[in-house]
Amino acid sequence: MMNRNATCSALAIIAVVACVACSDSRGRPSPDSVAIRPDQVVDFRVLYGQNCAACHGLNGKGGAAIALADSVFLAIADDAAIGHTISNGVPGTPMPAFAESAGGMLTGKQVDAIVRGIRSWAKPEVLGNVTPPPYATKVAGDSHLGAAVYATYCSSCHGPDGRGSAKASSIVDQSYLALISDQDLRTNVIVGRPEFGAPDWRGDLPGHPISAQEISDVVAWLAAQRPKLPGQMEANALGRDEKGIP
Description:
The structure is a single chain. The protein is mainly alpha-helical and 246 residues long. Helix content is 47%, strand content 0%. It is built from twelve helices and no strands. The protein has helices spanning 2-23, 44-51, 53-56, 71-76, 79-88, 108-119, 143-153, 155-158, 174-178, 182-191, 212-224, 232-242. The protein is elongated.
């Protein structure tokens, strides 16, 4: 009888120890742990990594899209402009709308958190006393004058007709122009793409920065090269190929 009781007691002790061990096992959430709902995440690093880094690069260093940590970009784009773009996207381009109010997944607080995080990358001292051209303008450019501006400031890299050279790619490619807005063209001319060796508005012709009006004119010239019906040229070309027409 005593051996049986001892055996039962030993089994009971083992069961208690096993339960304690299970409650403290690795990977098991603690009783006070709370899961954060996706719409409650306001950590900039998390939000930027999930929504922006794929195009704008790790830490805003640039990639398929412009570098958001660029000092020139942050000097010309204010918080309202950045927030508007994040919230509403840019129609007709790969930039989607992220705000819930525009069909996206981010709350207003989350958009604000991303704007603040991007602004934290600003380094005003880099530009010193230099005032860059305005981010946007209501003054329309002249495409005819823009052709001369292009020849002066851009052709040495992008070729005399804009179709590219050994230094840089085509800037009049129909697919490229169909997927980029006039504002993005203006931003690229001002900010450049340093990560690809393209200088900002001061470096295309050393000692002769492009003026604000010249920027508007060359953007108008580029916009004039945009296909009226995106995809039509490609469709026509495909039709010629199928018929064996060179």
